[in-house]
Amino acid sequence: MAQVNQAQSNIPGSWSGNKGSNSAYGSYNRFTTIVLPGGTDSGARSQSGVFGAGEAASRPHRLIPYCRNSRFTGRQSLLQAVKGFSECEGHNRVALYGLGGSGKTQIALEYVHQRAAESNCHIFWVQGSGVLKFSEGFKAIAQHVRIPLARAKTDETGFLLSVRRWFESPNSGSWILIVDNADNEADFIGNNSPIAKFIPQGTSGTLIFTTRSRLVASRQDCRMIEVGKMEEEEAQELFSKRYCGWGGLKDREKEAVAAILSSVHHLPLAVVGSAVFMTENATSPSIYWTILQENEGRMKHLLSRPFCDIHREVETESTLGTYFTTFDQIRQQMPPAADLLRLMAFLNHQNIPEELLTQCGLKGMDHSADFRCAIGKLLGLSLVTSAECQDKTFYQLDRLVQLSLQAYLQTNELNHGRAAALKAISRVFPQSRDGRQYIDPVYIPHALAATKDSTDPVAEELGFRVALYLLDMGSYDNADIQFRGCTAL
């Protein structure tokens, strides 16, 4: 791992912030702030937003759309991994990949602000969430490095390639380019893909992608760093920095905080969203926890409420809403994976046997190659994880993803998803008593989940079979509850 220069200094260079509703950079920032040695700030106005001639022009360029996040918490091992991969000799390509809301952008942001304080390399940041935003980012870079913008109006492709060539030229020196939210696989998976064709290579410089897609990270030949959820202590510390009443909390309230953070699986975006809601609505953790436990509908409503974070691309976001774009892309790019995900929304989110999915009756799922492509898509986007147990493969759908999916689907899609889940369970649940004795108990939680709150006749029949199985197994109380549920349908 490369050694990091720990010497602290003022941050030289030209800094630009993010203004405007359509671009992280607004209409090309017209103020350039130069931080001079000794900490003196000098604001320099120019018509193009680039340095004038003289000493300022030789200073490193800094185009980072977000200020440093003073509430950044933990993730030190991930930061060290980024440093190790980014500070090697030659050209470096690194990807922070993982589930939406896991903090990839915040890790990249903290790293570049640390690097800005320690070195004289150029640092640039562009959005990879779409061709238009990427193009706007490259235009902002062009202004800083004095590439004429006139060509962009008549030959945008040629203009963007000229920015790429600047990065690849010896004149560019040492640089870091962040490509944030590189989530749409269609934009990055081939050399001639809409955004990938403008990504610089060369013999120097460092590219850091933040992406939900392992495929994007792989196709861009990156050293991969998987970003998961926070440790319990990290999540609590992050909450304490975002909830204004933390210092006065009693033990009962802190216990409620621990329960809340566990229920959202210590996902940073959900931790921040919960803290912001409580702060803005003067709600104690115990009251918030009570609401969260009432029922799934209340939980979905609470986690769907938007909040603002100035250190992210979008101005407002919700914990559940952050996955909607990913669902859209799956639906467009691989419908069989979307169908499989929709079915999983109505199973228990844990310990889903692979056999249940391959025999579910969905088109193509009984074909090994098609199934591998579909489940691989979901695994690659970190929506689903897998584990091996006694030579069998089981999958887990992240609970927040499952709630988000149920909030995302239209009524007819919800009905189709539940029907597919009921059909899948019915196929492995025999009617005869002799057959029931061979049922693997692992299917029971999925049968209960699929039949829950359903008025479908298939659900009643399946629920009755489950009740008989529980009776056969001597679980009389649970069998009685299940029988009562069937008669209530």
Please explain how this structure is put together.
The chain starts with 13 loop residues before the first strand and ends with a helix. It is globular, with a radius of gyration of 26 Å. The protein has 489 residues and is of the alpha/beta class. Residues 1-57 have low confidence and may be disordered. A six-stranded parallel sheet has the order 4-6-7-8-5-9, sandwiched between helices. Strands 1-2-3 form a three-stranded antiparallel sheet, with no helix packed on it. It folds into three domains: 14-226, Rossmann fold (3-Layer(aba) Sandwich); 232-318, no CATH class; 322-488, Orthogonal Bundle (Arc Repressor Mutant, subunit A). It has helices spanning 76-86, 104-118, 131-145, 150-154, 156-168, 214-219, 232-242, 251-263, 268-280, 285-294, 296-303, 324-333, 335-344, 354-358, 368-380, 399-408, 411-427, 433-436, 444-451, 457-472, 476-488, and strands spanning 14-15, 31-35, 41-45, 62-63, 92-97, 122-127, 175-180, 206-211, 223-226, 307-308, 316-317, 352-353, 384-389, 392-397. It contains 21 helices and 14 strands.
